[in-house]
Design goal:
The strands form 2 sheets. This protein has a 7-stranded mixed β-sheet with strand order 6-2-1-7-8-10-9. By secondary structure, the protein is α/β, with parallel strands linked by helices. It has helices spanning about 1-15, 15-20, 20-35, 40-50, 50-60, 75-90, 105-120, 135-145, 155-160, 175, 215-225, 240-245, 260-275, 280-285, 295-320, 325-335, 340-355, 355-370, 375-385, 390-410; strands at about 95-100, 125-130, 145, 165, 170, 180-185, 200-205, 225-235, 250, 260. The chain contains 20 helices and 10 strands. Helix 17 runs antiparallel to helix 18. The protein binds S-adenosylmethionine. S-adenosylmethionine binds near residues 13, 64, 66, 102 and 133. S-adenosylmethionine (SAM) binds next to loops.
Length: about 425
């Protein structure tokens, strides 16, 4: 019967019951069984299946609405930087379209609004949609009254700027509220936000962790559909490897957990791939290069091209969920072309995906031995160490990642 309950939760909201644990599921169902005067689990499941209202009540007691203002502040800092430096110059007109999915009680979309308003983004061009499956959470978002817990770690100066104190709580001003449109919906509904490429940036944070792999893939496909081709998607700290395994490309901004769409990334890489494939053509070309390329270096270049294409194939296999084949291909490429940071990084991601965190860490270390500045390996190993309880090691790696980013962006001091 427990299985029938878990199947129901997966069906209605994508929940992988093991992600919150059996006791939490049991407690939630007990609450609903008491409220409906049903003492038999089978009878309750039957009732819930037949009643949309009861299904919603079940969702309300099972969701984890945990959220707070400026959660992972680097994400908001990046949103602001990206809006000004990348989006505005390319879009002299029209709204910046943002989505908070899921938005829970509103702290996330309101933080997006406050961050951009504070940075001087034109208020009339700000358009934020915020979606959640929980009616209760959305009702709270609409009230926009928040207690101390919603401000953990955030800057009191910003709170005082945008909220009216209404002890023991704070009421968000209408001037911020008006920029966010809330909507109740299920990410897995067949008619979920119809259309394509509607958003320039999407925050989809701390929900993917509650889904199993198949459901996560479905969620990522939804994000792919909704995100503009040059858009940015933000996920939670534990959700980054999922995005990488789908070919999303990490934006170099430590602790922002932000990604660009795979298509854009592939397009950006294309010219390089063509250059690598060119040497053989050049041999038969009638145009004589001003400085002839030595044959040995052309051979090395074409080897590198072959290795790089092999690794692209391995990424595609991992993307399709064919992890064993992807790992085998990586191992083969290492044997054929010698060790490469990218190959070890991919093997590490596959091991992490399989739950073998120790092997994942070892492979990230191999990647970093080969390329101490491999940004993604630094970030991922840092997060992995954090998960494994090595906070000091994690800090060191994340700081190194920050240095790599500053150096790449030319902001090194
Ligand atoms: C932990 S909160 C995350 C809130 C915010 N994104 C953040 O990171 O602070 C998770 C939210 O996901 C929502 N949720 C769970 N399953 C959902 C689904 N299938 N569709 C839409 N929202 C969902 C829950 O109602 C809950 O409010």
């Amino acid at each position: 019967m427990q299985q029938a309950l878990e199947a129901l939760l997966k069906e209605v909201m994508g929940l992988d019951a093991s992600s919150i644990g059996a006791p939490a599921v049991e407690r939630a169902v007990q609450v609903r069984m008491q409220a409906t005067n049903l003492s038999d689990l089978g009878a309750y499941i039957e009732f819930a299946r037949a009643s949309e209202a009861e299904l919603q009540q079940l969702i309300e007691v099972i969701v984890v609405p945990e959220t707070w203002f400026w959660r992972d502040p680097q994400a908001f800092a990046l949103l602001s930087r990206w809006a000004f430096e990348s989006w505005l110059p390319k879009n002299p007109q029209g709204p910046l379209r943002l989505l908070s999915l899921p938005c829970s009680t509103g702290e996330e979309p309101y933080s997006m609004a406050m961050t951009l308003l504070e940075a001087g983004f034109p208020a009339g061009r700000l358009s934020i949609d915020a979606v959640d499956i929980s009616e209760r959470a959305l009702a709270s978002a609409a009230r926009a009254i928040y207690g101390r817990n919603s401000f953990r770690g955030s800057d009191p100066a910003l709170r005082d700027l945008y909220f009216d104190a209404a002890a023991p709580a704070w009421h968000l001003r209408e001037s911020v509220q008006k920029h966010v449109r809330f909507q109740q919906s299920n990410l897995f509904a067949h008619d979920f936000l119809p259309g394509a490429e509607r958003y320039d940036a999407i925050f989809c944070r701390n929900v993917l962790i509650y889904f199993d792999r198949e459901t996560q893939d479905h969620a990522v496909a939804v994000l792919q559909r909704l995100l503009a081709s040059e858009g940015v998607v933000f996920v939670g700290p534990s959700e980054t490897s999922l995005m990488l395994s789908h070919g999303f490309v990490a934006i170099k901004a430590p602790l922002a957990f932000a990604f660009r769409k795979p298509d854009t990334a592939a397009a950006a890489k294309k010219p390089a791939a063509r250059v690598l494939a060119l040497p053989r053509l050049r041999l038969t070309s009638s145009r004589i290069p001003l400085t002839p390329t030595p044959l040995a270096s052309m051979h090395a270049e074409s080897q590198a091209g072959e290795q790089s294409r092999g690794l692209d194939d391995a990424v595609a296999l991992a993307d399709a969920g064919r992890f064993a084949e992807a790992a085998t291909l990586c191992a083969k490429l290492v044997k054929q072309f010698g060790p490469a940071a990218r190959a070890f990084r991919l093997i590490a991601m596959i091991r992490a995906e399989a739950g073998d965190l120790v092997a994942a860490a070892a492979n990230y270390r191999s990647a970093l031995y080969l390329d101490p500045n491999d940004y993604e390996a630094l970030i991922h190993l840092g997060l992995l160490l954090e998960k494994l309880g090595n906070a000091t090691g994690a800090k060191v790696l994340l700081r190194r990642a920050q240095r790599v980013e500053s150096r790449d962006n030319g902001t090194d001091s």
